[in-house]
Amino acid sequence: QVQLVESGGGLVQPGGSLRLSCAASGFTFGNYAMSWYRQTPGKERELVATISSTGGTTNYADSVKGRFTISRDNAKNTVYLQMNSLKPEDTAVYYCTSRVRSRDYWGQGTQVTVSS
Question: Do residues 112 and 12 touch, judged by C-beta distance below 8 A?
Fold first, then answer.
């Protein structure tokens, strides 16, 4: 079965960096685009970044452009989100997701807290 497992979240000071990872299994990872979303209490999930199946195309929310980088390693079935220059407003639960065979799959999420 399809599984997505995020890791790498934590507490970081403003201006700091974190790298999130999402390990995928149960499908042919290199055939599917991957995305990162984030959610704060009381708000809808927000699309943060998307990467194509080959990694050749990426897209970002305006709020993270120039600070976050999405990448993938198809040999390791893993997608990453490098987050630099973190701000308190980046605090959220971060999820990775993919649409596999017309169904959306989500990981359990990893908490990122940006605070001094």
Answer: yes
Residue range 80-114, pLDDT digits in tens? 999 999 999 999 999 999 999 999 999 999 999 99
Q: What are phi and psi of 40, to 5 degrees?
A: -115, 155
Cα gap 55→70, rounded to integer Å: 9
From CA 8, how far away is CA 104, in angstroms rounded? Answer: 22
> What pLDDT is recorded for position 8?
98
Backbone angle region of 16, left / alpha / beta, with phi > 0 → left and psi within -120 to 50 → alpha? beta
d(CA 66, CA 109): 23
Question: Which of the 8 DSSP states describes residue 43?
Answer: S
| Residue 30 identity | G
Percent of the chain whose pLDDT exceeds 90:
98
CA gap 27, 7 in Å, rounded? 19
Start-to-end Cα distance in the chain: 40
